[in-house]
């Protein structure tokens, strides 16, 4: 059994399809994710918006100047970065060379006016639109509050005796507390990496088990027929093959996990050890799935089985909601229509195993799914053994 | 001579096709036994049934005097198998392959190392131990296949058409290797549809067709068992039709024809056929050159029994 195990490990690591599915694919996909998500990694914070202000007499007489100075403060909540200019021409020059996102001027009624770059201005349209919206919103908010205070004063001057009423009228919040409902800072991208781990565990386990089992089956390969007439019992060879393919799968998934942690820099919030345990059990379940498909009495050789398995795994991933929005909607619909699917679909179970680390503080859902994966592995291995026992070499 | 392989009334069907029809076989220790027959005659099926790779419908198989079954690993460990198709790991090197197959029979690592070295040396693959099978030629691959089958030094080896698609040099090397194995006391079962190989190599031969044994014995016994005798070839240049007709009328000449300036006569066993043919040619004033007399071949045996050529 030991030499069969060693031979299986060596052979799998030298098989091109295994290298592609179990090593290249798991490393390429997170790299792609890293590039895709690179613009979303600033945790919602925004740099101060650069704006030009014409510092003339109207500006100094306007109350808006005090608002802008406050927003240009040096503390952590700085919203604007003001550049004072002498005239409108200098301000437009700053807009054109991209130094500022817009310009504030004060009109004859001492009200703010925003000047924005033209629509055909070169640059990131999304960011330009966001900055312009902020500048416009600041000016609009000032105008709205000014008109509100003005009308309130005209209708009921007594209202100004109670500052709380003014604050309430202006919608100013007097205090806010930030707290986290999860055990770490919420990062939407991490869930994609959990799905990736689930897919790696599925692909590696199934493909490795299938490939190595094809090398053992007399009806699939001449190598299998040769091994069947050897002096070592078939069950010992089978155990060596299964153990070898599982170890290779675990190695590949751990390699992928290490890449996520050390290169991509994903923070699994202290649950790295649980991720590793999850990967080990998930690959065991997927190895059992690959063994079952490999043991099925299908017509055709290893290529037919490999294609059938790939189609099956992708199909299971689709109904498990692992491949896009449409897939997630299908998964939700299926979960509502037939809840046991969550426990019977190996792809769904493995994906949920990792989701449970992300969504729940408690480890109970994770532990439950870990046990379910192990039970599923046992059931699939037992079914594989039944098919393998019945299998005979029948070849003219 | 103790019986190593004993098969009695083996019947194997593939649906409606009767692949083995009450096939029986007995091979003694130390023999090189040849199973000769055209493709599809049941040679490989018979071996696969003996090795329990195939189930069978009826019959009794005993190896080394013990009943053989799929789980008789004690018996399997005494057997070597060189299958018709090359069955090795493409991902492993030559040495790793031989070591793995040897490990299926021999657990001790130190002993295995010696056996692997000997097997590699036996098939002269020392210069290729680090090569993977895809880099080997057809002949070298066949030698690797043989090394994997013999490394554990079995008492009985089945060679199933080991020289198919092999160049003449490698073929000669393989046949020589089998003779050496036999010389060391190994019993060999050799299947082939190349009669020349079987004639050269085997002590005893069974001729098979349609899953049945048609004849068996030593090559000489088989040759004597048929009425077809020697084949006489005489280089004559030109031969008048009357002279050819006189040769055909000779009492023991079965057939006579001219082929590429050569008179070819098939004769019955016995008598002085050559003297009679040359006498007719002299009477007709035919000058002749090179003369060849060939004894009947296994192909002639097969032809006479079945009415068709072995290679049909």
How would you summarize this macromolecular structure in one to three sentences?
The complex is a heterodimer of chains A (396) and B (312). Chain A is mainly alpha-helical and 396 residues long.
Describe the fold and architecture:
The complex is a heterodimer of chains A (396) and B (312). The longest helix of chain A has 31 residues. The mean pLDDT of chain A is 81. Chain A has two domains: 238 residues, no CATH class; 122 residues, D-Maltodextrin-Binding Protein, domain 2. Chain A has 16 helices and four strands. A four-stranded mixed beta sheet of chain A has the order 2-1-3-4, sandwiched between helices. In chain A, strand 3 and strand 4 form a beta hairpin. Chain A is mainly alpha-helical and 396 residues long. With 312 residues, chain B is of the alpha/beta class. Chain B has two domains: 221 residues, 3-Layer(aba) Sandwich (Rossmann fold), CATH 3.40.50.300; 69 residues, YebC, transcriptional regulation domain (Alpha-Beta Plaits). A six-stranded mixed beta sheet of chain B has the order 6-7-8-3-9-10, sandwiched between helices. In chain B, strands 2-1-4-5 form a four-stranded antiparallel beta sheet, with helices on one face. In chain B, a hairpin with a 2-residue loop joins strand 4 and strand 5. In chain B, helix 3 crosses helix 4, helix 3 runs parallel beside helix 5 and helix 4 runs antiparallel to helix 5.
């Amino acid at each position: 059994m030991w030499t069969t195990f060693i031979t299986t490990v060596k052979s799998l690591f030298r098989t091109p399809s295994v290298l592609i599915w179990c090593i290249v694919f798991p490393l390429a996909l997170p790299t792609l994710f890293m590039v895709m998500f690179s613009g979303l990694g600033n945790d919602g914070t925004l740099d101060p918006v650069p704006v030009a202000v014409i510092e003339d007499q109207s500006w100094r007489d306007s109350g808006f100047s005090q608002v802008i100075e406050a927003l240009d403060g040096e503390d952590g909540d700085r919203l604007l970065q003001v550049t004072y200019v002498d005239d409108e021409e200098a301000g437009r020059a700053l807009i054109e060379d991209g130094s500022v996102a817009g310009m504030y001027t004060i009109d004859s009624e001492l009200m703010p006016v925003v000047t924005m770059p033209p629509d055909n201005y070169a640059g990131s349209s999304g960011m330009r639109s966001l900055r312009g919206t902020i500048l416009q919103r600041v000016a609009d908010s000032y105008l709205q509050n000014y008109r509100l205070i003005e009308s309130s004063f005209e209708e009921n001057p007594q209202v100004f005796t109670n500052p709380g009423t003014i604050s309430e009228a202006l919608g100013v919040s007097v205090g806010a507390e930030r707290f986290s409902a999860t055990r770490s800072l919420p990062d939407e991208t991490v869930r994609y990496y959990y799905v990736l781990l689930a897919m790696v565990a599925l692909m590696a386990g199934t493909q490795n088990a299938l490939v190595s089992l094809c090398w053992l089956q007399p009806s699939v390969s001449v190598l299998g027929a040769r091994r069947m007439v050897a002096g070592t019992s078939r069950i010992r060879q089978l155990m060596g093959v299964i153990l070898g393919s599982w170890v290779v799968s675990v190695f590949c998934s751990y390699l992928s996990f290490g890449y996520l942690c050390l290169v991509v820099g994903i923070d699994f919030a202290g649950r790295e050890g649980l991720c590793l345990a999850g990967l080990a059990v998930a690959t065991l379940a997927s190895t059992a799935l690959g063994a079952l498909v490999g043991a099925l009495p299908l017509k055709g050789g290893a290529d037919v089985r490999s294609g059938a398995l790939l189609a099956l795994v992708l199909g299971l991933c689709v109904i498990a909601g692992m491949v896009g929005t449409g897939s997630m909607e299908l998964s939700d619909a299926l979960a509502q229509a037939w809840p046991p699917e969550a426990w019977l679909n190996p792809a769904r179970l493995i994906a949920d195993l990792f989701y449970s680390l992300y969504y729940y503080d408690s480890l109970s859902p994770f532990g439950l799914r870990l046990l379910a994966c192990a039970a599923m592995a046992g059931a699939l291995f037992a079914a594989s053994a039944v098919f393998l026992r019945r299998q005979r070499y029948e070849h003219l | 001579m103790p019986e190593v392989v004993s098969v009695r009334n083996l019947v194997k069907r593939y649906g409606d096709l009767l692949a083995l029809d009450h096939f029986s076989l007995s091979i003694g220790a130390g023999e090189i036994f040849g199973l000769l027959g055209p493709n599809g005659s049941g040679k490989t099926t018979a071996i696969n049934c003996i090795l329990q790779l195939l189930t069978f419908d009826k019959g009794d198989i005993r190896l080394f005097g013990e009943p053989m079954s799929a789980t008789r690993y004690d018996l399997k460990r005494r057997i070597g198998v060189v299958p018709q198709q090359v069955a090795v790991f493409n991902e492993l090197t030559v040495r790793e392959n031989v070591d793995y197959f040897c490990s299926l029979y021999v657990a001790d690592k130190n002993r295995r190392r010696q056996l692997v070295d000997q097997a590699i040396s036996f098939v002269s693959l020392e210069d290729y131990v680090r090569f993977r099978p895809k880099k080997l030629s057809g002949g070298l691959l066949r030698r690797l296949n043989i090394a994997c089958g013999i490394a554990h030094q079995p008492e009985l080896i089945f060679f199933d058409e080991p020289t198919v698609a092999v160049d003449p040099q490698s073929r000669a090397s393989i046949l020589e290797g089998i003779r050496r194995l036999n010389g060391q006391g190994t019993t060999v079962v050799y299947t082939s549809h190349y009669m020349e190989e079987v004639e050269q190599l085997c002590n005893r031969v069974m001729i098979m067709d349609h899953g049945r044994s048609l004849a068996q014995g030593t090559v000489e016994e088989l040759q004597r068992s048929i009425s077809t005798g020697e084949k006489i070839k005489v280089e004559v240049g030109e031969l008048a039709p009357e002279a050819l007709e006189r040769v055909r009328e000779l009492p023991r000449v079965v057939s006579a024809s001219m082929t590429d300036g050569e008179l070819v006569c098939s004769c019955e066993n016995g008598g002085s056929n050559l003297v009679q043919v040359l006498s007719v040619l002299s009477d007709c004033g035919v000058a002749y050159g090179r003369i060849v007399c060939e004894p009947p071949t296994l192909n002639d045996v097969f032809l006479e029994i079945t009415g068709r050529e072995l290679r049909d």
